[in-house]
Amino acid sequence: MIFKILFPVVFLLIGSYALTAQELIPLNNEYLNIFEKNASLPDYELHNSFKPIDKSKLLKKFNTDSVILINRTLDNKTISLFHRKLRYENFLIIDTGDFHLTIDPLFNFEVSKQKGYNKDLYNNTRGLIVQGDITKKLHFESRFYENQTFFNEYINDYITNNIIVPGQGFPKPFKRDSANTNGWDYAYATGYISYSPNEYFNFQFGHGKNFIGDGYRSLLLSDNSFNYPFLKITTTIWKLQYTNLFASFMDLTAPHSYESGFYKKFGTFHYLSWNIHKRVQIGFFEAIIWQNYQDSTGFQRGFDINYLNPVIFYRPVEFSLGSPDNALVGLNGKIKITDKLFLYGQLLIDDFDVAGLKKGKGYILEKYGFQGGLKAFDLFRIKNLNFQTEFNQVRPYVYAHKKPLQNYSHYGQPLAHPLGANFIESVSFLRYRLKDFLVELKFNYAMYGADTANSHWGNNIFLPDENAQLGYPSWGNKVLQGVQTTLMYKDFRLTYIVNPKTNLNVSIGISNRTQKAALSSKDDFFIYISVRTSLSNFYYDF
pTM of the prediction? Predict the structure, then answer.
């Protein structure tokens, strides 16, 4: 009896570096950047454009722990238990061989001050992550977060207008009777189960986010919006990796009731990644969005079983026959110029009516976007000095649809780029890692043609195409039409990595956001300091 009680306690205290079999690397740019240089080596030929990445794929090529625990050595004889848990290990560990479990606290405590804004700003996030393995074939993870936040002015305005915290769900007012009037309370959870019966197949079922691409943004599918339920099947054979993703989304703009909840729509995604050469990788993308509805006869359309068809590019043929659903296709690719320098890019096509294009320039159904970028590791032969620059452009009305319920969005936000459509953008990063210190410089420059309450120039993807400013169909549409707006976002951040296992870090930074339009202008300058476990991306640079 005593042994049964003490047995798990012993394993809670023993340091363990057992690497989980099917663990997914968190969708966090800081975390992903640690592995990216190794994962991008040409000789490895890894398929790492569909994220989150299965860590077991990386483990076949290099030791991920030796990368993440950079410049650290652990000697259990000389380091105290408290020091190990704080700096090297998970908080609680159970490892019995076939069963491995870790439990860690999650938090984000941040205080900031905005110039000229007399409100106190802070973030108070508490959470928990539980993850583990049952044998080497099954991995599970669950996270929960509870948040109370006083955002800076432009984010607070966004939440007030859209009733959504960017990427984090539905909020309710917090401390609205006090001197602070911009507080929000919100909670969210995420988790998944990952099962690999063999080296060729992986099945994931969860509630979370996905990302397709090699850049900071994705024009195909990004982690910009809120979590959603999904089933993902990945097949890897030879130089090919094929991913089927089935998801359920919600539309906050459609009428809903307490009994039925928010209006639902569904999505099927196909992505085929092919290593044409060890230095050239190309991916073929397809997505279909359709609404859940009930017609006048009482027929209820839910998840259409026809979209369980795993064959890629069967849907555009059906679309040409008059199907009402929203179909998108695209390409993703990268060329590895050297071991430490590669180019990447994307092409997204929403609607492309060739007959309409022949009638004149700027046809409304000339819907496409493209991305081009460059990443350089160990710049100027300085170890861990990395540079990235990226350009994105999306034409007006892309991602929108004749039926608003079939637009490319979820939970009040675009499924791709946070700016929606009708924009051009440049994003650049310079990062330097010295032992446990990380310095990051970031610069965003974007221009977009904004819509007003009485106009639809193609920026707002939630409006129907029929409301287009020049009519539907129409010609003469061009990028940046509408209220031309310029956006600049600059950020400098110094981070100290306390524990890389959960990306526990202390950061101090300075941000400046300027937004200028014909009749308005905003200049937000703020400083911040935070202690947090960074395992997700949250995009406030819009």
Answer: 0.91
pLDDT > 70: what percent of the chain?
Answer: 88
- Convert 234-265 to b/e letters by CB count within 10 Å (16 or more is b): bebeeeebbbbbbbbbbbbeeeeeeeeebbbb
Q: What are phi and psi of 118, to 5 degrees?
A: -90, 10
Surface-to-core class of residue 376, CB atoms within 10 Å of its CB (0-12 exposed, 13-18 middle, 19+ buried): middle
Angle 252-258-262 from CA coordinates, rounded to 5° = 25
More confident residue, 45 or 352: 45
What is residue 13's predicted lDDT score, i.e. its pLDDT?
A: 35
CA pair distance 406, 409, nearest whole angstrom:
8
Q: What is the pLDDT of residues 330-380, one digit of tens each?
A: 999 999 999 999 999 999 999 877 888 888 899 999 999 999 999 999 999
Closest CA to 46 of 312, 342, 270: 342
Domains defined for the chain, CATH in brackets? 2-533 (2.40.160.130)
Distance CA 503, CA 298 (A): 51
Q: What pLDDT, on a 0 to 100 scale, did the predictor assign at position 39?
A: 87
Q: How many C-alpha atoms does 375 have within 13 Å on its Cβ side?
A: 20
| DSSP code of residue 165 | B
Please give the structure tokens belonging to residue 518: 């014909």
Q: Is the pLDDT of residue 422 over 70?
A: yes
In order of 97, 124, 203, 225, 506, the CA distances from 145 in angstroms are: 30, 10, 25, 16, 19
The DSSP code sequence of 42-67 is GGG----SEESPBHHHHHTTS-HHHH
Q: How far is CA 236 from CA 20, 244, 286, in A?
A: 19, 12, 18
Q: Which of 271, 272, 309 is nearest to 287 (CA)?
A: 271
3-state percent breakdown (helix, strand, coil) of the chain, nearest 5: 15, 45, 40
pLDDT band at 450 (very low <50, low <70, confident <90, very high): very high
Three-state secondary structure of 130-143? EEEEECCCEEEEEE
Rounded to whole angstroms, the Cα distance separating 175 from 161 reads: 19
- Taking only the tens place, the pLDDT of each residue in 474-496 is 999 999 999 999 999 999 999 99
Answer whether the bond into residue 166 is a cis peptide, omega within 30°. no
